[in-house]
Predict the structure.
Amino acid sequence: MAQPQPRRGGDDQPRAQGNKGPGQSEPIKYGHAFAVTGELAGQPIAPRDAAAMRSAEDSVPGVQVPQESGGGFSAAAFMESAAAYNQAVGAVRPGQASDVAARQGINVTQDAVPGGRIVTEFVAGQVVGQYAIAEAPAEQDGAGAKAAGDEGGAGHDDAGARGGVGAAGTTAARRN
């Protein structure tokens, strides 16, 4: 019968407080979850940080964060979970904010692009989330479609008949 082999390096010895191994609780820091650098990367995600991000997301009119609309990523939702975990392991106190986030702030911006908007979420000036929101196409009623055709809308003009460049389908037909 095989005997258990002795372990090398004293693996059965308790680990030092600063050298936490698997199964031991370590706080979730910004650098673990987001592509951030510097002082922010080493800060644990705190409850007030999460609340500030939720407030910032809620302040952008018309934005429905992806996770809450059925998919994607929400920095606030992740931060809320991380802060709750950090609080449970004793890394942060209820209502605590991380130093860097408190000094430099948390905000959400949106930029208009063709067909929608780009929403960017920041903690201490560093991006922690970015996603696109598509605008719903405007619906046309029958009268609107008719008016577009009568006024030379795409594909409804007579440029192809005159030999000019019309809609893409018209141009392709003229080159044959």
About this structure: Strands lie at 106-113, 116-123, 126-134. Helices lie at 30-33, 38-41, 47-59, 75-88, 99-104, 142-150, 159-162, 168-174. The first strand starts at residue 106 and ends at 113.
